[in-house]
């Protein structure tokens, strides 16, 4: 959801992608590497053709050097995404996705689209899902109630997009509900 610059005081999408790059993904190594220690932990050994789990940032680095294939997560398939798109368009609640699905999908499609079956169709489905979820977010924000709000299954990117608007809106609602008479007098002026 594109917001005006005045409302953008949240984490940027590239910063969210950096955080998401710590998520573990499976790879099929094309080279052997002994166990290697990093600040975030020790990973390996890598022995082809055995699968290994690594943080996404390491997997992307190896993929760019053509030293592995990244195994896409189950949710990054045409069948799964078509099912979720049908849910998004037919149900009022948000369908369930991994918390950082938008960032992980973007990173994998940018670096390892050749490892994802029907990557163009996957991109298109993700775009349709994003648009459906943005429409639900907009509808939900129009119905904000200061006493209770539940938005289960929002992903980190979506939360980040609505946070600035939501914080300001909740501040106004709180102010209006504390002293409704003062607020109406001020509006009459």
From TrEMBL:
What does the entry list under GO cellular component? GINS complex
Per its UniProt record, what SUPFAM superfamilies does this chain match?
Answer: GINS helical bundle-like (SSF158573), PriA/YqbF domain (SSF160059)
Flavoprotein keyword on record? no
Keywords attached to this entry = Chromosome partition, DNA replication, Nucleus
Q: Which residues form the GINS subunit domain?
A: 75-169
UniProt record, GO biological process: chromosome segregation; DNA replication; double-strand break repair via break-induced replication
List, for all copies, the residue spans of the domain called DNA replication complex GINS protein PSF2 N-terminal.
12-71
From what superkingdom does this record's organism come?
Eukaryota
Instruction: Report whether Nucleus shows up as a keyword of the record.
Output: yes
Q: Where in the cell is it found?
A: Nucleus
The family annotation for this protein states: Belongs to the GINS2/PSF2 family.
Subunit structure as annotated in this protein's UniProt entry: Component of the GINS complex.
Protein name as catalogued = DNA replication complex GINS protein PSF2
Tell me the classification of the organism that encodes this protein: Eukaryota, Fungi, Dikarya, Basidiomycota, Agaricomycotina
């Amino acid at each position: 959801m594109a917001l005006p610059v005045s409302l953008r005081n949240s984490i940027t999408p590239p910063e969210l992608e950096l955080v998401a790059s710590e998520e573990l993904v499976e790879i099929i190594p094309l080279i052997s590497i002994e166990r290697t220690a990093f600040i975030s932990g020790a990973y390996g050994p890598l022995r082809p053709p055995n699968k290994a789990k690594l943080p996404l940032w390491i997997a992307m680095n190896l993929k760019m050097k053509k030293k592995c294939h990244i195994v896409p997560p189950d949710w990054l398939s045409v069948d799964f995404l078509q099912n979720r798109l049908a849910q998004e368009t037919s149900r009022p609640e948000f369908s369930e996705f991994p918390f950082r699905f938008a960032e992980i999908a973007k990173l994998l499609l940018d670096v390892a689209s050749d490892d994802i079956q029907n990557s163009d169709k996957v991109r298109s489905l993700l775009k349709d899902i994003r648009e459906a979820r943005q429409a639900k977010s907009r509808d939900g924000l129009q119905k904000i109630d200061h006493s209770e709000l539940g938005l289960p299954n929002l992903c980190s990117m979506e939360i980040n997009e609505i946070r600035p608007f939501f914080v300001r809106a909740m501040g106004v609602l709180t102010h209006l509900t504390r002293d409704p008479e003062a607020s109406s007098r001020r509006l009459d002026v």
